[in-house]
């Protein structure tokens, strides 16, 4: 699970790889087509597809000389769940900090009022 | 925007860094405390915190000799939005493929029936 999250987030950390996923979301494509679309060498595109394949985000199939890429079985459920949980933590944490700041501001004001008397 | 997504996803691709974010979601902590909790050298933890800081996921503040870490300003909105969009593409793509498979199965069956006549 940890390694799956690691591999998926690492795969998503590159704009070309995110672009390839979006492209394959519209339809299967060969490595050559992807290389052309992203103005990249075949070798470069093969590497990116390899990273996506390892992360389970893409599957490839070779028929004759053409390797066709398709979206893989992973729907990024766990990654979405992790981000969801993180945002909940974040919200709770900043609510908490906000309350601390409010409390401090209130105290400061009442101290000031006391000093003025 | 692209570089922000790149940096955030890269920062999330490590289990210690994800753990640090979860930890800081529960409360601020010094680098020393984090290093102890994750059984890591100070140097190692400083590197991880540096990556999180660069991605806007953590802010640090040095008071005297202690550097305290806190969750940063980024709530991972764009990253969540990207994953959301990807899952929609994924669902649409697999619905489409499913229909193609159903259509092929239907044709095969009717061909078979014709052959049997």
Discrete helix count of chain A? 5
Reading off the top of the CATH hierarchy, the class of the largest domain in chain A is best stated as: Mainly Alpha
Helical/strand content category of chain A: mainly alpha
Global shape of chain A: rod-shaped
CATH fold group of the largest domain in chain A: Arc Repressor Mutant, subunit A
Q: Return the domain count of chain A.
A: 2
Question: N-to-C terminal Cα separation of chain A, in Å?
Answer: 63 Å
Helix percentage of chain A: over 70%
Poorly predicted sequence stretches spanning 5 or more consecutive residues of chain A: none
Q: Major sheet of chain A: order of its strands?
A: 1-3-2
Beta fraction of the residues of chain A? 5-15%
According to DSSP, the number of beta strands of chain A is 3
Oligomeric state of the chains present here: homodimer
Topology of chain A as a string of helices (H) and strands (E)? HHEHHEEH
Description of the molecule:
The structure is a homodimer of 117-residue chains. Chain A is mainly alpha-helical and 117 residues long. The first copy, chain A, folds into two domains: 2-71, Winged helix-like DNA-binding domain superfamily/Winged helix DNA-binding domain (Arc Repressor Mutant, subunit A, Orthogonal Bundle); 76-117. Chain A is built from five helices and three strands; from the N terminus they run H-H-E-H-H-E-E-H. The longest helix of chain A has 40 residues, at 77-116. The first copy, chain A, is rod-shaped, with a radius of gyration of 24 Å. Chain A starts with a helix and ends with a helix. The A-B interface holds A 2, 5-7, 9-10, 12-15, 18, 21-22, 24-27, 71, 75-76, 79-80, 82-87, 89-94 and B 2, 5-7, 9-10, 12-15, 18, 21-22, 24-27, 71, 75-76, 79-80, 82-84, 86-87, 89-94. Chains A, B: Keywords: Coiled coil. Chains A, B: One of its GO terms (molecular function) is DNA-binding transcription factor activity. Chains A, B: Residues 1-91 form the HTH arsR-type domain.
């Amino acid at each position: 699970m940890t390694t799956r999250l690691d591999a998926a987030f690492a795969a998503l950390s590159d704009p070309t790889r995110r672009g390839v996923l979006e492209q394959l979301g519209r339809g299967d494509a060969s490595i050559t087509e992807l290389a052309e679309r992203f103005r990249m060498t075949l070798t470069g595109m093969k590497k990116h597809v390899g990273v996506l394949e390892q992360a389970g985000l893409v599957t490839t199939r070779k028929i004759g000389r053409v390797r066709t890429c398709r979206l893989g079985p992973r729907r990024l459920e766990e990654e979405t769940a992790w981000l969801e949980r993180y945002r909940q933590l974040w919200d709770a944490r900043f609510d908490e900090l906000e309350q601390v700041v409010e409390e401090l501001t209130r105290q400061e004001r009442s101290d000031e009022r006391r000093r003025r008397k």
